[in-house]
Model the fold of this input.
Amino acid sequence: MTLTHLRHPATASAQGGPLRVAVLGHGSIGRPVADALKSGNVDGAALAAVVDSHGTQDAAGESITFAQATELADLFVEAAGQNVLAEFGPRVVAAGVDLLVLSIGALADERLHEQLFGGPGRLYLSTGAIGGLDLIRAVADGGTLDKICIETYKQPRTLVQDWMDDQQRAELLEVTGRTEVLRGTPQRIATAFPKSANVAMAVAMAAGDPAKVEAVVFADPECSLTSNEITVQSRTGSYLFQIRNLPSRDNPASSGVVPFAVLRAIQDLAGRRETLI
Ligand SMILES: NC(=O)c1ccc[n+]([C@@H]2O[C@H](COP(=O)([O-])OP(=O)(O)OC[C@H]3O[C@@H](n4cnc5c(N)ncnc54)[C@H](O)[C@@H]3O)[C@@H](O)[C@H]2O)c1
Done:
């Protein structure tokens, strides 16, 4: 007797073969994800295409059109930026291809969110650099979520924005201790501080109802790493998540853990036999 019948076949694609994954954006997240897929190290999934600002290639490196890339793929991973998501994302889901989004901050634009949600391709939001979204989604779906507060602590210089006048910039750069800069809805924070947009909107999406989420940005000259503290109050429990990611080596504005989160999601979507869900 053999146990070969227990071997897990990769059956996630429409054709029954490996899940075919196209990567949109070949930067600090997209490059390691594409490399892992191309090397065959991701069970049940294979690289289908890479779309970057330099053009679109299939897995063999041949130039193809974006439309051809959508025909080759079961899943697109967007790791390119909010504008690129707005330009290409609707075409991906309209072609019936699933879309895993990294630039979640773009969903502060309700029209874009509706377009991406409209299918027929499915919309997946990456957990990216944030933890605890599974528990937030559970209490939100269960109807017991009362309130979430997400506090983001950053070095003052990283919070300077184009919309600030000279006095606001000077005050921000001169703070000597932890100082609240802005408090509001996740959409307001995402619009005012685009670098905090993904975290604020990811929590809002997990909560389902953005009205239950308050986001606060603090300038903190003492913090060596950006810190996100997510406090959840629900009728089934209270939770506190603190996330302090080390920056990516390739892009100091991103976190090194994010490609791992994307590859974890791809393996789950590809039909991993045992997973946490
Ligand atoms: N959800 C999360 O937790 C999380 C965490 C980190 C980053 N992100 C988001 O992921 C996105 C990518 O981050 P990154 O660190 O890899 O950025 P990056 O700057 O390292 O890479 C972006 C890539 O997109 C490509 N690109 C730019 N314009 C393009 C276009 N018109 N068509 C195709 N490709 C284009 C660039 O050439 C580059 O290769 C950003 O929007 C970032 O905010 C999300």
